[in-house]
Amino acid sequence: MIEILKPSQLPRARQAGALVADILQTMKARATVGTNLLDVDLWTKEMILGAGAESCYVDYAPSFGRGPFGHYICTGVNDAVLHGKPHDYVLADGDLLTLDLAVVKDGLAADAAISFVVGEKRPAGSIEMIDATERALAAGIAVAGPGARIGDISHAIGTVLHDAGYPINVEFGGHGIGSTMHQDPHVSNTGRAGRGYKLRPGLLLALEPWVMEDTDELVTDADGWTLRSKTGCLTAHSEHTIAITDDGAEILTSAR
């Protein structure tokens, strides 16, 4: 399903996006050396419920996962890049942490992700990798607008990631979003310009460039959810929810 919002619905989408951004920045500030991932999950739960919103993850049970996710935020450490299931792990100096969050507020969803290094240490290549995903995300957003096509976004993202030297996995990518978290159209992180669905005002998209340092192959943890790089290399992931407007694209999940 591809859902097109009415102009009257956009303020609610902005509220959902602002909440996601606020929670992610709060968790980034709290995720210091010695913090347990289970505490990050608990704090996220408190903020979601305190805002009168709902988690998109707790009861989420797609075909690629093992049962309901059962947590409120995805926490991927170092080689874990997608669907990181919070567990009893204490963050160490130099850990590369990815936080991915989606919530529904007043009937509309927003989805975003950030990657950052905890503490003072900076593992080789970590900052460059995070920067590449952020630049790829910005490039995808820059070409999004009415009349553009999904392939234009995929090509812009892929060009940045390829030029930075990273392999690109196409199993998971961006997606439409609206009253539910995952909708059509799929937005691959590489592709050909001029192809695919034509963007229209009112369309919401979650764009999410993610990379692994030296491989494009994923492996799944025993928890049935957490996806890691096959080689154990570092990973990074950046994501925003955007709304296609009459004259371009509006980022709904920017930090205020």
From TrEMBL:
A divalent metal cation 2 binds at D111, H175, E208, E239. Monomer. Keywords: Aminopeptidase, Hydrolase, Metal-binding, Protease. This is Methionine aminopeptidase. It is an enzyme of class 3 (hydrolase). Gene3D superfamilies: Creatinase/methionine aminopeptidase superfamily (3.90.230.10). Residues 13-246 form the Peptidase M24 domain. InterPro entries: Creatinase/aminopeptidase-like, Pept_M24, Pept_M24_MAP, Pept_M24A_MAP1.
